[in-house]
Amino acid sequence: MRAEFSERLLEWWATHGRHDLPWQRPRTPYRVWVSEIMLQQTQVATVIPYFERFVERFPDLAALAAADIDEVLALWSGLGYYARARNLHKAGRECMERHGGELPVSAEELAALPGIGESTANAIVSQAHDIPAAVLDGNVRRVLARHEAIGGWAGEAAVRKRLWQAAGSRVPKTRGADYTQAIMDLGATVCTRTGPDCRNCPVSSDCRAFETGTIDHYPAPRPRFDVREKKLHMLLLTRADGAILLERRPPAGIWGGLWSLPDGDDAQGLNERLGVDDADVQDLPAIEHRLTHLRLEIRPGLARAGPDTQGVKCNDDLRWFGSGDWRSLGLPKPVLRLLEDFIEGER
Ligand code: SF4
Residues with catalytic annotation? Predict the structure, then answer.
C-alpha cells in the first residue's frame, strides 16, 4: 500500500502539481532554503513576490551573509514572524564561517543551523539534492492525519511520532524532490483545510477519513489559547525638516529587530525618556492590531521636536530618519500605516 501511495501521488502530480514555482527554476539549495523558510506559516501566493524580491537582491548565500540585517528585515517587512528573517541571516553567516560558503548537504547539519527544524531540513535535502526524505509541514500533516485517521493535536509528542511514522513509511526510494513537492501540493490544492476535493484525490481509495466520513475530525485543532491584550504607547516625534525619530526594537519579542516608533507601557514614561513635555503631545486615534497571541491597542501621540531637539539622545538604535530613508526600512505594518497617514495629513 505504501509504495502505491507515492506512485498514485506522483502520477497525479505530473498532471496537476505545481511545476513553475519561482524556487523550482533554478532549484538551487539556497533558493529552496529561502523558500522553505518563507513558507513556514505563510501561503505560496503570499510568498512568491517576497521570494522574488529577496533573491533578486540577495542572489546567493554570500550576498545574504554580507548584508546588513536591516536590509534583510526590510525585504521581509509585511511577511511577519520576523525571527525567520533574523535566523536566515544568522544561518547564512554560519554557513560562510563553518561550511565554506555553502549550505550543508546533510539534514543533520542543516537542522543544526538557526531556524531550520527537522521537516525543513528534509524538505531542503529532498528538493535541492533529490534525496528521498520525509517532510511534515502543515499541509502534509493534514493529508496524513486524514489518510491514516490520526487523531489528537500535532503539538503532542505521541501524535507527532505517529505522523512522522506515517510520513516516513510513504516516502519512495527515488524521486525525492518530486515526492516532497507532490505531497505538499496535494495538501495545498486538494486536501485543503476546508472543503477537500476528495473526488479528485489520487489517494482517496484508501483514505480512512474519507472511507468513514470523518474528514472533519482530522487533523484535531490546536487547543484554544488565550489571546492577551496589551496597550502600547508610541510617540511620533517629528523634526522641522520632516525627519522622524525611530527606534530599533529588541531582537526578541514582537517585531523583534525592526525599526519602529519609540514605545512604552505608559505615555509619561515614554515622553520623559525622549525629553518631550507631556503638554506638547497631541493624541492620535488608537489603532488595534492583532498578532497570534496578542491583541495590541496602540495609542500613538504626536509631538514636534524643537529646533535644537536637545531632549533626544540618539544612538545606534535611536535615530532620525528622513522620509526617503524610513520608507526603505522594515517597519511593522501598523507603524507604516500610521506614518503614511501622518504624511498624508501634513500635505
Ligand atoms: Fe484528503 Fe479527501 Fe484525499 Fe483523504 S480523500 S487525503 S481527506 S482529499
Answer: 36
